[in-house]
Each structure stands twice: as C-alpha cells, then as structure tokens.
Amino acid sequence: MARKLITFTIAAAAAFLTPALAFAHTGVGEASGFMHGFMHPVGGLDHILAMVMVGVFAWQLGGKALWAVPASFVALMAVGGALGISAVPVPFVETGIALSVVILGGLVAFGLRASLAAAAGIVGLFAIFHGYAHGAEMPADASGLGYALGFMLATALLHVSGLGAGALIGRLSEIKGPIVVRSAGGITALAGVGLLAGVL
Question: Which of 41, 46, 102, 161 has the greatest number of beta carbons closer than 10 A?
C-alpha cells in the first residue's frame, strides 16, 4: 500500500511539475539570478537527459534510492557549482557530462542493480561535472545564491520527472513497462555517444 501511494505521488508530481519546466522563462523574476539558474539545466539536451535518467535509475532501484539517489545528485551538484563559481579548475567537464548521459542511460537500459552507496556515488560523481558547468556559466551580475537555488530546483524537478516517468510506464504494463523504460535508457545512452562525438 505504501509503495502504491509513493508511486502515485511521484507520478502526480511529475505530471503537474513537468509543464512548469516548459513554461518557465527568463522574463519572470530576477532574470540574471534565480530564473537564469532555473533555465540553465533545461536549456541543454545533455543536462535534461542525464537528470531524467537519474530519476528513472532511482525508480528502478526503488526503496530508499527513490529519494537518496536524486538527493545525492543535487547535493554534489551544489558542490560542483561552487567550484565553477569559484573558478577552481576541474578537468574534462564536458566529457564528464556527456559520459554521464551514456553511463546513466546504460544503467537504465540494462536494468543494472547497484547498492545505494554505489548508486549515490555514481550519480554524485557526474553531478560534480553538471554543477561545475552551471556554476562556471553563471552571469557576472547574477545573484550566486538565487542562481544556485534556481538550477538546484530545476534539477530536482527533472529528477521527479524521471521518477514519475518510470513509475507511470511501470504501472501501464507490468510486463512491457520495464522494456519501455530500458529502451528509453538505451536511446539516452546512444544520445550520449552522439554528444561525445559532437554530433548532437
């Protein structure tokens, strides 16, 4: 009963929150602070794919991973964002972001199981690269706190969308749902290869 309630809540949240990402624009609120930070994660295919896959991966693992895996991503993304804002050099940021799409998509595609610590560690590593990119691209006149809160909220909403997508697909068909989810992971991994090759 509790799992059904959690699944329903996540699915409902995804259904209601996903359109908010589509309608958000920089003309509302502090354009160079919160809203600019909010729009950054939803402005790039690499960020969207990786963050949604974090949610789908967490859904596949279930249990505590439903909240712990996305939470570890958001927390370590904030660390990466601070490094980017401070201009601390981090090598291979763009490669790390593209690899995150490949690897997270592959984890979902193959339905690989991982311990909670391993799953949080994997997504946390990639979160540093994503956060660094967000922080390094912050406009000079932006409010650092507002910008950081914006990109953290957008990221969390993308994770919720991934959780909701996995839950909805799984509920539609207990037999075919996992195939659809894993296919989405495979397509995402291929998109990541395209990002690495510079095609996308």
Answer: 41
